What does this fold into?
Amino acid sequence: MSPANPDTLIGRLIDGRYQVRSLIARGGMATVYVATDLRLERRVAVKIMHDHLAADDAFRARFIREGKAAAKLAHPNLVNVYDQGEDEGLAYIVMEYVPGITLRDLLHDHHRLTVEQTIDIMDAVLAGLQVAHRQGIIHRDIKPENVLLADDGRIKLSDFGLARATTSNTVSGSVLLGTIAYLAPELVTQGTADVRSDIYSAGIMMYEMLVGEQPYRGDEPVNIAYRHANDNVPPPSEHQPGLPRELDDLVVWATEREPEDRPADAGAMLAALRQAERDIAESSSATVPPTARLTPVPVDPETQLLAETHEPSSDWDRLTTPTDPSSVEAALGGAAVTAPETDGAPLAAVRLEKINRQKRRSGIVAALVVLLLMALAGGIGWWQGYGPGSYLAAPDVVGQTQDEAASQIAAQGFVVGDVSVEHSLDVAEGVVMAMDPGADTRLAPDSAIALIVSGGPEILTVPSLAGKSREEAVAAIEEAGFVYSDEQEQEAVVFDSADADTVLYATDEAGEALPDQMAEQSVIRLVLSAGPVPEVAGQSQEEAVASLEAVGLNGVVADEQYSSDIPAGVVISQSNGEGPIRPGADIGLVVSLGPDLVEVPDVVGMDAEDAISALEGAGFSVSHSIPSVLLEDAVVSAQSPSGGDEIERGSTVSIQATYEF
It folds into this structure.
């Protein structure tokens, strides 16, 4: 598998330091992950270049340039870069992790923003961008996707992937970098850029925030590029009436087609934005609800000092048509700009003069654009007919069976490469879990696509558990690749002759006996011994009940019996019942009533035969020496024990007799 496949990078330790946790986003040049810096114990974002681009020296150089350019910059409104390197073919950049959404997400949800929100976001973006401009770095890709709105209210500019130093106008080569919707005219007509190209992109982004859409839209990028080169961006209020004139003027100023007619850098535009905000506040009597604004990011002292240095006068017309030429140069950050002769004319007259100059240049520009479009059309033809543009997007076959995936790959003009099988608890056997290259990757025809197919759960041998202690059994279960469940542990404890916490036997999750083999991560439950049931015979009833309660059993009196040998209130025997004895079970107790005492009848003076009947009827045995032939004539003269005594039932009573003839 390719090392840059998102599925295989989750959990990977990069450079022995960065533990990849989850995917954030996948872009055209790189994939961004959330990771943990194990050395500093903090969460970071790691951008990893796509492996099919890493082989291209130009792309790799641009990726490395991003890290070096951004690492030079430190500001609360810029995403910090911490580290950069390579690890086993992976080119990566480690950045500050900013949880939240992008400005593009906010525009998608709300369509357009309020004046206050637009000012807050532009203030933060320009405050960060001016730090880059002061260090001679052009961002070259200002757009809503690269403005991060953190959950805690911070606003940060990210992704200096197209950044370059501003040592003279930077030639971009034959490829126009940046997003076409925000591309400055000079990049279209000349292929060059400086810090004022960033200003143009920022102006387009500000227009989109206020209006809810970009000024130029079309199906073909060529049409959009043509309009950037030849049309003037209209004031936002033409599409959204009621917007402040100050913001109209700032957007128009920032999006002038000629770079020298724009603010000199981000610092100049930031100063103008803050002056416009003050002018709007002074001219408006309405109170802005607190919820209408975004939480502002504090500006560092250096940024604040620069903003104050660039701060214009309270009159916007004086900012654009100052009477002192030196003040223009100061307001625009030192740029050599010549102010038009207005003789006090209002801003509209100055704007008309600029438009006339632009129209005089339009013929030359149009010719250049035609030549550029012809070259671009030829390049597009080569790109789509023979170059990478002829590549097709790889189909998404994850989640399909192996046969279904193979059919779809073949139908798209590709071939199935290596097929490996990995066990999975979540994906059914025979279903594709991952592919390399990933879905939507543009590939040349007949390129091979490798698949990882699920083999289902791995079947493992169940360990022997009977006779082990609970701790030993749990360790054996987990080591064998299964899961121990104690959800019903209380119900799986029985009293037995084995020592307490000894495993008697184990079951599966349904309570059935364990087979010899089971799927990995299957649940195993243990039936443990609670130790033997206490023997309580010979204890008093109270002592017996207490002994049983001490181990979680209930002692209940099942019967009471007379006993000649066991005193009353003492347990004669116990009954544990049939089947497993679990905690809380009842143990039947047979309690002694002591000896069964009966009062001896008084039979002295009775005929011997009647006396014997009376004593036997009372439950006694009778002892006498009367001959049987004389029994009818015998009269009881004495007895032992005496009548009225209480003796145990079944005892022997002796009688003596006299004879009457």
Remarks:
- The domain at 597-659 is CATH 3.30.10.20 (Trypsin Inhibitor V; Chain A).
- Residues 75 and 128 are 6 Å apart (CA to CA).
